[in-house]
Each structure stands twice: as structure tokens, then as C-alpha cells.
């Protein structure tokens, strides 16, 4: 089924570990704190590189340390830098390291213990952090901050995880993306019109057009040349799914070949995601709706259905923030719950099969909206769990990332792929999404990643976060 590019599925962030001390207060206590924190990073499986080879004791304590540290961390090609304040803070060094590295910055310091019996103190990390943040602001260096807490408290681990997800998402737009667009925009979907030149200039998002005629020919060639293998896969598909209206194997072979040809294009062109026209050329030529192929592709590569390029970007950002913990699904925010004022139907087709409710079986049937006798549309309810929903969008040079969290809730049965999501304040979601520049498509992933996505916007110039209530 193919392998997603490393850049698209990247689960780790290489963190520069740059402890900060000062000539005042206890250096011995600062070194002890450094060791405790390094042990935690190892326990949490954080990929990091220290500065022991750049400065004495692997701790910045003087302005002269800036050059060697910056050179070392640039050589190591770190994605971000963590500057924990171990006893106070060498504020000008912090500012210059953050400015010269030009990567996301994380600050934290251990909560200070009570003064010793004689009234002296081993450290004043909180005070040092106030000084360093002032200098970072002065130098216009964006940074993330974890509240002053003890090393064993949950706030530290949660904060580090949130920061890593934010960096991973931000780097998608800082380093650039390549989105393959199979076919062209559906003529009556004006909502999916995008400014490709602006996306390339502002966010280094390249849209690569892929010809639909060539794509269909390649799909048919795959079936012709691999009929025996595809026959075996169709037999397995019929056993796994409830298939309606597809008595012949050919259309099912075509669906599987769409999956394989798409993933082959991902590899060939180095794509981070794909947007697919989906209907009607693909459907008419292949004798079936191919959204189940989209769902299988989405297990390994973000997909935007119905030529929604920005929907693909939304899915990429969600998967990056989640550090690869599950695929994303481009859904419609469709209709309010008939009884629950804070719930909404999250619905579409082409969901990754791994997202289905464990009690559900995939059913491939007819499209209940479009008037067509053809089959192949996937129908199954999605599983329960916490959800993060996001939409990257923009008009006239103003780009925003709408982000919110909810949880599945009970609701009436419907068709295609769906769940009912309850939010804390759906009217707030509705109004903010309506006021734009958003549309009804939004990416969703299981888990809590809204804070990471909001934090990611700090590191992407020109991207404004919109938090949905």
C-alpha cells in the first residue's frame, strides 16, 4: 500500500537542550537540576541534543557562550531549542541564542524551594525567567512557556509534549509542503478556490497538478497488469466489507488500484498530501465511487476530498500536532444535533477504516445524495473518543487556523462516515466559522491537540489562531 514520506509522517522533533544558569546563585544546584531534567527527557523518549560539547558543564552562564552554542545547535540541525533556567537566567544570552537560531523556543524553570535555614536561596528561577522573556520580546523572538513547576509535576511533561506538537505542526509551514492535486477543482465548489501563488509565497505550499486522464489510464493499467493479485485482494475485501451493487470484481479492482496509484504518485513526486477531485470523471470511468480508496490512502497520507487543497493542509497540521498518533479525516460540519444544543454532526465519506466504531462493519453501497446507480460509497459510524477539529483557510492574504476540541456523543444514525460531536459552546463555533474565512470542511483527529495547534501559530508569520469555544 505504499509508505508515506518521512516529512509528512514525522513523529519526532529534534530538540536542542540548552540549560541556562548564571554566575550568581548555586552552580552545583543548577547542575543537579540539569541532570534531573535530562533524565525526564530520556524517560519521555524526547529526541534531544545537549551542549556539553560546546560550553563547560553544558550550561550557558555567560555571553561568550552564545557563539559556540549557536554554532553547535545549527550544526546539529535542531528543530527547536529548550532553554530551562536552572538557577537564574543569563538574559542577554537567552535572547541572542533564540534570535540567532531562528527556531521555536521553549522556556521553563523549576519551582524554587524554600530559603535555607539562614535565609539564603539556591536559585531564583522565576525571576530569571521574567528577565529572559523581556529580552526575547525586545528582540521579537517568539517563544513558548511552561508554568513554573517542579520537575515531577504533570504540567512539565504536558508542556513539553504540547511544544513538540506545536513545533512539528509549525515546521510543516516553515519548511514547506507539496500537495498533489489529482484532477481539477469541481466546477460548482467555489469554496475550494485557492490562491496557489499566495500559498507558495506565504507558506511555501506548492500545489502540483496531476492530470486526471493520465491518472485513470494508470489505474486501468495497474488492474490489467496485476489482475491476479487484485483478484485476491477483492476476495479479501468482500469478506471484510459488506459490498452492495458491485457484483463484478472489476470496479472493486479499480478502487484498490486508485489507492495504489495515488500512493505511487506520493512517492514519485515527494508529496506531503493529496487533494482528489473524486467525482464525476473518476466515478464514471472506473464504474464505482472511489472514496474507500481515499480512506485507505488516508491511513498513510493526508487526503483532501473534493479538490480541497486547504483541507489537505488542515489534515497535515493535525497529524503533525498529534506527532503521528493516528490519521486525520476531512469531514463536514453538517447539521446541529436535534436535541443537544452543543452538538453537531461531523460527517463525510472516505474516512480511514481504522477510525470506524469497533462494532461497525464497512458497507460499500450507493451514494444517497448524488443520483447515480453506481456503488462503492463507504458507510460506517466512527469510533468514540476525544476530538480535535481544525481548518486552515484564508482570503485576500489573511490566513487563519480555526481550532477546537470536543467529544463524541450519542445521536441519530445516518449514512456514510459520521459521528456526533459535543462541544463546550457550539454557538461560538458556529459564529466564528461562519464569519470566516472558513468553509464546512474541517480536519479532525482523535485526541487533545488544540493547544499545540494554537501554539504553532506563534512560529508561522501571518497565521492567526482562532480558538473555537
Can I get a quick summary?
The chain has 469 residues and is an alpha/beta fold. It has 15 helices and 19 strands. The chain has helices at 6-9, 27-43, 66-75, 91-101, 125-138, 154-175, 196-203, 212-225, 227-240, 250-269, 281-286, 291-298, 309-321, 426-434, 450-456; strands spanning 15-17, 48-49, 80-84, 105-108, 143-145, 177-182, 205-210, 242-243, 273-276, 303-304, 329-336, 343-348, 363-366, 375-381, 386-395, 398-409, 417-422, 441-446, 463-467.
- CATH level 1 name of the largest domain: Alpha Beta
What ranges have pLDDT less than 50 throughout 5 or more consecutive residues?
1-9
CATH fold annotation of the largest domain: L-fucose Isomerase, Chain A, domain 3
The secondary structure category is: alpha/beta
Q: Within the largest sheet, what's the order of strands? A: 11-12-17-16-15-18
Helix content: 25-40%
Strand content: 15-25%
DSSP summary, beta strand count: 19
How many domains comprise the coordinates?
2
* Overall mean pLDDT: 93
Query: What can be said about the biggest beta sheet?
Result: 6 strands, antiparallel, barrel
Q: Quote the distance from N terminus to C terminus.
A: 39 Å
Report the CATH architecture of the largest domain.
Answer: Alpha-Beta Barrel
